[in-house]
What does this fold into?
Amino acid sequence: MLKILEKLLSRKVNADMLFLSELLTYKGESQILLVNYFDQVTLDYSLHSLTFIDEYLLLIRQYFIETKFKKLNEEEHQHFIQDIVTISLRIGAYVGETIRENDQKQQWYWIKSNKKRKLNPILLKVTQSDPKHSSAILTNGTLYEFPMNIVIDLITLPHKEKNTLSRYVDEVLNLTSHSI
It folds into this structure.
């Protein structure tokens, strides 16, 4: 019964996450850092498109490393954190939608979790004043995945070459192919 209820409640969240993933290449007032990178690549929710996202994240990681050591005033610091969160949310949504698009054996859907947001210090700092923000969780009813957190980790934690979104999605898809 709980799984059926989760699926019904997730319809709006699924639409929200698809829209959020489409905002990845948006240019305008709320565009992400280095958005012009996406002018030269095709983002079509294919597994191959994740290699472009991985390359983009390397650029963002370099920006993060350079900026975190600068002396920023409070406003600049808040803007810096907001940029990282916006990128993480949009790319995380794209990664989740890529999983949904490419898993031929399982049906995935999004659910929201305020608890997960509270456990993530970066998301909490930016979103605590805005309760509509929460961390989206991708589930197939058995597995629970946190694409936004994976993106934040790839940007902020020490980098290892084997840690990529392409590898993460491959592992998720391989897990679901073995769980049937």
About this structure: Residues 84 and 116 are 17 Å apart (CA to CA). The radius of gyration is 16 Å. Strands lie at 109-113, 135-139, 144-145. Residues 120-133 have pLDDT under 50 and may be disordered.
